Amino acid sequence: MAKKWVYLFEEVDEAEKYVGGDWEAVRGLLGGKGANLAEMVRIGIPVPPGFTITTEACNAYLASGGSFPEGMWDQVIEALHHVEKKTGKVFGDRSNPLLVSCRSGAKFSMPGMMDTVLNIGLNDETAQGMIELTGDSRFVYDAYRRLVQMFGSVVMNLPDEAFEEVISEARRRAGVESDAELSAEDWQAVTLKFKSIFRRMTHRNFPEDPLSQLRMATEAVFKSWNGKRAVDYRNAAGIPHDMGTAVNIVTMVFGNMGDDSATGVAMTRDGSTGEKRIEGDYLTNAQGEDVVAGIRMTKDISELKKEMPELYEEFEQICRRLEEHYRDMQDVEFTIERGKLWMLQTRDGKRTAQAAVRIAVDMTEEGLIDKAEAVLRVSPEQVDFFLHPQFDRQAREEARLAGRLIATGLNVSPGAATGVVAFDADLAEAWSREDGKDVIMVRPETKPDDVHGMLAAKGILTSRGGRTSHAALVARQFGKPAVVGVAALNIDMAKRTMTVGDKVIHEGDWISIDGNAGEVFLGQLPTTVPDIKDPWLIKLLSWADEFRRLGVWANADYPKDAQRAREYGAEGIGLCRSEHMFFEADRLPHVVKMIMTDLPIERREALAAVLPYQREDFAGLFRAMDGLPVIIRLLDPPLHEFLPNRIDLLQELCDLKIRLQHAQELAVIDDLLAQVKRKEAVLNRVESLHEQNPMLGLRGVRLGIHLPEVTLMQVRAIFEAACMVEKEGVSVHPEIMIPLTSHVNELKVQREALEKEAKIVMAEQGVQVKYKFGTMIEIPRAALTADQIAAYAEFFSFGTNDLTQTTFGISRDDAEAGFLIEYMENGILPDNPFATIDRDGVGALMEIAVSKGRGVNPDLECGICGEHGGDPVSIDLCHRLGLTYVSCSPFRVPVARLAAAHAALRDEQATS
Amino acid sequence: MAKKWVYLFEEVDEAEKYVGGDWEAVRGLLGGKGANLAEMVRIGIPVPPGFTITTEACNAYLASGGSFPEGMWDQVIEALHHVEKKTGKVFGDRSNPLLVSCRSGAKFSMPGMMDTVLNIGLNDETAQGMIELTGDSRFVYDAYRRLVQMFGSVVMNLPDEAFEEVISEARRRAGVESDAELSAEDWQAVTLKFKSIFRRMTHRNFPEDPLSQLRMATEAVFKSWNGKRAVDYRNAAGIPHDMGTAVNIVTMVFGNMGDDSATGVAMTRDGSTGEKRIEGDYLTNAQGEDVVAGIRMTKDISELKKEMPELYEEFEQICRRLEEHYRDMQDVEFTIERGKLWMLQTRDGKRTAQAAVRIAVDMTEEGLIDKAEAVLRVSPEQVDFFLHPQFDRQAREEARLAGRLIATGLNVSPGAATGVVAFDADLAEAWSREDGKDVIMVRPETKPDDVHGMLAAKGILTSRGGRTSHAALVARQFGKPAVVGVAALNIDMAKRTMTVGDKVIHEGDWISIDGNAGEVFLGQLPTTVPDIKDPWLIKLLSWADEFRRLGVWANADYPKDAQRAREYGAEGIGLCRSEHMFFEADRLPHVVKMIMTDLPIERREALAAVLPYQREDFAGLFRAMDGLPVIIRLLDPPLHEFLPNRIDLLQELCDLKIRLQHAQELAVIDDLLAQVKRKEAVLNRVESLHEQNPMLGLRGVRLGIHLPEVTLMQVRAIFEAACMVEKEGVSVHPEIMIPLTSHVNELKVQREALEKEAKIVMAEQGVQVKYKFGTMIEIPRAALTADQIAAYAEFFSFGTNDLTQTTFGISRDDAEAGFLIEYMENGILPDNPFATIDRDGVGALMEIAVSKGRGVNPDLECGICGEHGGDPVSIDLCHRLGLTYVSCSPFRVPVARLAAAHAALRDEQATS
Questions:
Q1: At what angle do helices B744-765 and B708-727 cross, to 10 degrees?
Q2: Distance (Å, whole) CA B189 – CA B195
Q3: Considering B95, B708, B744, B794, which has the largest number of Cβ atoms within 10 A of its Cβ?
Q4: Do the Cβ atoms of A505 and A482 come closer than 8 Å?
């Protein structure tokens, strides 16, 4: 017996059995559209009879080089007979003809494939029969010409213009403005002309045989899977090429058979806000195309309630039924043919991030889904959405209606941006830096030379390239909103213009791009930052907290950051970079003095001047985090970072010397000489501190050992602050962190010195403060010898930025706008390891460190405080490594809470 | 029963049983001297009767705060009785008194402890008895005054000057020049005066009771273990403090009892050359001290053969017996008392490196030891000795005899150096750089500010510091001969002089230092480089080759280096740095052109110009290594290294601009402007190539991927050369090595490109060359993902320099003269990880790499090509990791061959 290639909609149980009962696999076999049509039939929702030819048939057809697999066509014929029986109509029969549509339907919705041929089954004879049946020859000839036109353009690849020209001509002849005004005779003439165009351009007659029409349309769908645009799209979207598309053959129903007919689209909830109300548009006496095309003004779905109250109620019940069944908001298409409601499609509805959150929460409270599912329904990227500027919803809707949405492309980097168009990097930089303009940099595609312009721009737009193009990678890297691969854009670098259709945009014109939706608008659009305090989001995150096992802490250097982090749900400070405070205007002079002097006494004086500031900084942090742990990392960066830049000094010295040549007055000369002397002194110090590779130089714990006074001052400040706030009644939990440890002895030596100082301070203050002592793990050697190190550390904190730099031997500053991008473009690196932890290298070291460290000290607190702490994929890894917490920027805390919950839930699913 | 604290010499079996039969443990219990005296007794060699108080007794005494452990003193008395019985004399007996010496003797010979008290047992009464017995009152009073003097100075810590003054006074009174001319009465008077000095300075009488003398001397030896100098020495030499010293009580024998008495020292072979002949000095009618003190002119041991032929023959037999027993060259002390030969000490003799090699080889051929033992007898440092300049042996001996050896200290960095004294770093640098002088930098101790002077100096000398002092560490780092911790040096920085005793050396005076022996000479000494082609060394290394399992390859960039490496025994080239050739004068302009241009065509032209040179370089290498593998590493360093320095360019530009201010003539101005333009072009390129951390930047395989033309040119040159020499009949085995791989995809991409080019070239040339393709493992990630990488590599070569940099997160260029030294001084790092592979970190990564790599590809060739490849400790690690070979500089090949044999032999010993 031949394999089953064709499934009637009512045969979904069989399909399920064949693939092993997995709904995802059913979608794989029947395509998303086919599976949902079948599913609707199963749950008793009115769907026009029809059947699906499987994706397996498509793959077999393509693999054979263009032959239907054995038995397929027979099964199609058989299924067709079944539909004939159900509808009481007969395919190709003059008296009561069955018409069908033929639609592609892959597992994932995918542009670029052949989409739809309607009205298959019409020919001169059946058209006649239809006229007799309906008494509406205008309707029939309109349908007939649509078949010829669609068949010609989508099956035979004829240019649509040829057909459109005929219709325009017909309008001119009839002296009317719109197609709606054309008569039955006009459409009959158009149909004839279409057929002769078909003959002229294909050298064959339009197939009158309905089965030939069906066969050719089916083959065209199959072939379109490997069409250029479809392949390009799959490459860009990362969809595998071996999935194939299904073909759905469905009985035609018509919304344009009079005032008791209608057609429309709807979402079962509001896709923008998530509000629980049906949202949609419809037209009476119209075809589906008309709703989408926007030729006629559509009516809001609420009108239907008044126009056809019973049908609306049926529709509303169906929507509710669908939501209950799919346990998600649905996007549906329907047609009412002479008072009978038919559902033509259902699928999970697209929604904004806010809507996603609200729908997930509401559905949980409605009992449709449980909390775990609600948490899993919202992606970390959707939470991230709440943190980026977005276009004002109202303004965006108006712009869309005003036709200012001119093109869409790939949404490769989130956020919205508005600015003037600049077609090259130098101009983008100049306009931004010198004129303070907001710029959108527009290029056919970008290359490394463009990076400075991209960095200066507010957003990036390209006409070519996919998700891993240079433009996409750089934009994501630096958090710039970007839309790429907008094929509709025609950029003319010579003329300094871009055109979309007939719209011409000149350099300097305003445009707006939406990196979430991949949309490009003409003109300026106002942006707003969504409210992170959205009540549904707060509820969802509180549920996430119930599932996650990872703590979520934040990196914060100042009390105000700590405050914000706490508001967003942070359970501790994972990283306070104590030296950030050194750069403040009131402290830097003391710090510079401390560095410039060779005299220990001067150094101590300078440090003594910094101490009160540091103490206040820490006290503020402790107060903000009352009751929660605060990890303070001791001085990390190399000292030269606090001094002027060497190259700048050399230039300034050169300038001074040239000015000296010109100076005439003695006073001026004296002043210049004094300046030269001062600059030379600083330069000398800078030179003596200069290192070939400062990232691998005298910094971190090395500095602490080299200049013990500095770290002692910091420890004193920490403990004076801790004692002070403890006396105020604050519950304080300081954790002292040593950076850049590579050998256990570094930690040992520092721990001894620092604990001694801590003891002295606590004795002075008469307060005992509980504290922890630990280290960053950011050097491979520290990870490899974690067992030795854990003997002197109560906690580890992975500094995955430096750990990635050393594990890869890559200087992030140098590489991230350079060869790293090249590597990602070429596929040498799948991801930017500075954005997502490299599992095989850095992850392996982390695993070694955790297992060796906990082997010695089972209570070892292990966290991560690199930027990776806010990256969902990295958070998943941290969960699997059994870390205690992730620490990220305050703004990423909500994202991390959700991602940590996802990790825990996925883990549970995997092990259950 | 009390523990046994005292062992008669004849009780060595018991001691051996107690410690478990291990000779090293016996030495630990009885000390080196005691154990050897007992051992001589066991094998029937005449040793004056005596016994040893154990190191355990010493430790117990010190632990108790100064009480002999229970039973010890009783055991001493008992042992003394035993000696009395053996000698027929009685301790403290007037008629036939027993005299003994009391000497310290730790496991390792160690300066700084109380050494010897002779003639214990003499008092007014026994002296009288001795006179009656010997009839020689001069001899007896001389012995008596020596006891009082030694007891006073070493037991009671009285200043020796007081005693010496008395003797000078006595000489003056008697009107004689030397002690030898003083009469019995003179010595009797001296003895009386010594006693009154003793009384005056210690407020007690000289102990007349022989047992009190013995008890006090024993306690003094115990206490001296914790004396300041002894503790300092142990700290410097790395000897543990809990070993304790033994005390040896030995019957006195006298070489000064007439012309049938004599005393001397000898080595059983020549300690300088290793020649098989007894070498030594003696004096008739003299005490041991006299031979060492150099007061009287000693006679060569060959004289003894004529003077006392029978005794000489006995002595010769004893020497042979000792060598046979100890299976090593011995350093002995002997005394002839009235025609009876006594051996007072034996120990393994000190020897030069040449002697060590020859003795090991000769003894093997004599059948005393086997080849494995011979190989183990010579240390890699001794082979290294053959590669450093040394003082001419003859000249050094003459200088020693002329009293120009003024002091000794710690031999912390090998080699000999001669130069003028400079007391500060700036002067050392100025004299060396500007005046071309050879300088020895002399400081009380050094600190980081001194490094520039140390680098400019030929050698380094300090009066303070130990083996891990800053001076010692820096000297070893940079291969400068150094002697440190020369306590006898008195450096007066104000006067710019140093004094040793009464000798004053001024700044600018010549001195010579021997870093092997730790010796300091006045004036210049000629240096020579020992002959690496020493026939004994060649033989020893050939034996080493029989044992080692590691291959020894060499790093060589040029044919002449390859030639030398092969002569020294290299079995392949482990690293040819192909870019070194780019720096040659005839190539650099093309390379610079290649870097400066943005035009692909110009780049290809420039590379085409380099190609013939590269081809010739490789051809020469292949010819030199006919039949052996040659690993060529493709371009590694960042491009900016081929261009002028950025800071220099800025300075030059500044100078040019200042000159422009002064220029008057148009022609000059034009010329200067043109220069500015050229410099600015270069500077622009340099700026665009500038990286924050070039070590982690665009270099290695990253460059190969970024500029594929360069590596393709190199591969073409390699294969054109290989085909060419193959046609000449040379057997060529090229191995292409990719540097700095961190991700398998880098290797994959490069391998594809390079193998394609290789194929093309071989097809062009009509020759098939067998080659391998592999990668450096010098980035932690490469080691961690070695299983993935091994799928694309036939060999791994560990670049342990970069691997150490990335594993530690340390930039060697910056740290090695900076905080790394600080770390070693403070004991934070036990060794310089750039000299000796860090076992726990870098070694762990190497182990992961080897095991993961061989897991995928069992035939994977694994080598090391960092400088560590020539370091014995690292070679041992490489052996244990199962590497295929080590590759080091040609000069280190002999050292590596021996070290590899040691590793294999130790491994065998450990597992057998």
A1: 40
A2: 10
A3: B744
A4: no
Q: How far is A858 from chain B (nearest CA, A)?
A: 22
Q: What three-state secondary structure class fits B344?
A: strand
Phi, psi of B562 (to 5 degrees): -60, -40
How many whole angstroms separate alpha carbon A735 and alpha carbon A674?
Answer: 46
Query: Between residues A258 and A149, which one has the greater pLDDT?
Result: A149
Residue B262 dihedral angles phi and psi, to the nearest 5°: -160, 170
Q: Chain B, 650-709: which have a CB under 8 Å from a chain A CB?
A: 650-651, 653-654, 657-658, 661-662, 691-698, 702, 705-706
**Nearest Cβ partner for A828 among B746, B780, B809:** B746
Tell me, yes or no, if B808 comes closer than 8 A to chain A by beta carbon. Answer: yes
* Interchain CB contact of B828 with A (< 8 Å): yes
CA-nearest of A155, A54, A46 to A107 is: A54
- B662 CB neighbours in chain A (<8 A) are 661
Work out the angle at residue B497's Cα, subtended by the Cα atoms of residues B492 and B502, and round it to the nearest 5 degrees.
95
Give me the total of CB pairs closer than 8 Å, taking one residue from chain A and one from chain B.
199
The H-or-E segment that residue A341 falls in is: strand A340-348
Sign for the CA dihedral angle at B352, B357, B363, B368 comes to positive
Other C-beta atoms closer than 10 Å to the C-beta of B392 total 15
The residue type at A532: I
What's the rounded Cα separation, in Å, for the pair B901 and B890? 18
Instruction: Judge whether B43 is closer than 8 Å to chain A, CB to CB.
Output: no
Interatomic CA distance for residues A784 and A681, integer angstroms: 42
ipTM for the predicted complex comes to 0.85
DSSP alpha helix (H) spans, B707-743 = 708-727
Q: Tell me, yes or no, if A413 comes closer than 8 A to chain B by beta carbon.
A: no
Would you give the end-to-end CA distance of chain B in angstroms?
39
Beta bridge partners of A461: A442, A483
What one-character DSSP code corresponds to residue B192?
H
Q: Helices then strands (H, E): number in chain B?
A: 37, 33
User: How many other CB atoms are found less than 10 A from the CB of residue A408?
Assistant: 17
CB A264 within 8 A of CB A291: yes
A243 min Cα distance to partner chain B (Å) = 27
By the CB < 8 Å criterion, does B832 face chain A?
no
Look at residue A120 and tell me whether its pLDDT is greater than 80: yes
Chain B nearest CA to A785, separation (Å): 6
Cα A75 to Cα A561: distance, rounded to the nearest angstrom: 67
CA A858 to chain centre: 38
What's the Rg (C-alpha) of chain B?
A: 34
Q: For residue B601, how many other CB atoms are within 10 A of its CB?
A: 8
Stated pTM of the model: 0.85
Residue in A288, A343, A291 with CA at minimum distance from that of residue A318: A343
- Is the CB of residue B62 less than 8 Å away from at least one CB of chain A? no
Q: pLDDT category, A293, cuts 50, 70, 90?
A: low
Is B740 close to A784, i.e. CB distance below 8 A? no
Q: Is A192 exposed, middle or buried (0-12, 13-18, 19+ CB in 10 A)?
A: middle
What is chain A's Cα-based Rg?
34
User: What is the predicted pLDDT for the residue at B293?
Assistant: 62
Active site residues of A: 470, 865
Question: Could you give the CA distance from residue A225 to residue A62 in angstroms, rounded to a whole number?
Answer: 9
Mutate to test the interface with A, among B653, B702, B751 (most CBs of A within 10 A): B702
Cβ distance of B807 and A662 shorter than 8 Å:
no
Hey, are the CB atoms on B819 and A702 less than 8 Å from each other? Answer: yes
Per-residue pLDDT tens digits for B418-464: 999 999 999 999 999 989 999 999 999 888 778 889 989 999 999 98
Answer for the pair B117, B217: CB distance below 8 angstroms, yes or no: yes
